[in-house]
Structure formats: C-alpha cells, structure tokens
Amino acid sequence: MADTAVGATTEPEHGNDPSRRDFIYIATIAAAAGGAASLVWPFIDQMNPSADTLALASTEFDLTKVAEGQQVTLKWRGKPLFVRNRTAGEIQKAVADDSAAMNDPQKDADRVKPGKAQWLVLIGSCTHLGCVPTFGGGDYGGWFCPCHGSHYDTSGRIRKGPAPLNLAVPEYEFLSDTTVKIG
After folding, report:
1. Contact 166/105 with Cβ under 8 angstroms?
2. 21: enclosing H helix or E strand
3. How far apart are CA 4 and CA 157, in angstroms?
4. How far is CA 3 from the centre of its chain?
5. Average of pLDDT values for 129-157?
6. 141 near 153, Cβ under 8 Å?
C-alpha cells in the first residue's frame, strides 16, 4: 500500500488531466471547422444567381405563334415550358375526365385561366424523374414520358405510370388576347 498523509489529495498534474486534454481537442477542431467554413463560403455563395438574373424570372410570349392544336416549347428558368393551344375536342375530353380516378386529382378548370381554356401552360418536366414528355402519345391523348412510361391527359394530369404529380402549371397571366406573361 502506498503511504498517503491524512488530508492530502492526489490531484493529477495539469499536463495529464483528461478533461482538459479533451477540451483542447474539441476547441481545436471547432476552430478548424470555423476556419474551413469561412474559406469555403465564398465559393458556395458565388453559385447563387445574381440579382439581375432573378429579374428575368418572367417571360412574355406572343400567342399568335401557336396555331390551334399545336404546342410550342420554350426554355424558362432552365426548364422546358409547354404553351399549348388546345382544340375544342381536347378541352371536352379534359373536362369529361374531371371525375376520373387520378393519382393527383385536379379539375381542368383549375389548370387554365377563366375564359382561356384553349391555352394550357405547363412546365414540361415529368414529375417522376424530370424527363421531357412528348405530346400525342400514351393512352389518354396527352403527353407521354418515354423514359419510364408516365401517361398524362390533355390537361397535363397524371393518369398512369410512376409520376406522382400532374405536370406543373406555373404562375402566368394574360397581358392581352395575344400575349401571356409567365412567372
């Protein structure tokens, strides 16, 4: 047995104190992480769009370029945008299918502007994996995504396949009978 005087304490020397050593390690790691973050942040921040790019987040389109039954594909915010001038038959089919069973139920009237049912504006990216569907294929007379087999009707609503949602309708407004502003 070791002789210990009564009332004497056995404190470890400062260099061997485990709690002090742990604190120094944690403080060093925290300082290094903060330094690394301050070096990396300018590189990450420069990837954000500039303020003048955000001002171009909307676009105007002349509808006289699209004949009845045709579609124009534009590039908007880096994505394809479909502007379709639907025929009376396409509109009737879409309205008749309003009560059909759908994965993402939505009425045709909710996807177009009042009094402008012939004009359908959609973001042309399949909601499954972002492929670009083509018009006129599939089982419902609308768009068909050949990548994974999603079928959309004449209102851009998903009817069959792996896509979980309808083709998105962006914010848009008619500036006149011949001009639409998207975004």
Report:
1. no
2. helix 18-45
3. 85
4. 74
5. 87
6. yes
The residues carrying an active-site annotation are 148
Q: Supply 29's token pair.
A: 């790691």
161, amino acid identity: G
Evaluate whether 169 touches 182 at the Cβ level (below 8 Å): no
CB atoms within 10 A of CB 74: 14
- Give residue-wise pLDDT tens across range 11-57: 555 556 778 888 888 999 999 999 888 888 888 888 876 665 554 57
Return the pLDDT at 95.
Answer: 92
How many CB atoms are located within 10 Å of the residue 32 CB? 10
State the Cα–Cα distance between residues 86 and 105, nearest whole angstrom: 20
- Mean pLDDT across 130-142: 85
Identify residue 57 by its one-letter amino acid code. A
Instruction: Locate 67 and state its tokens.
Output: 């004949």
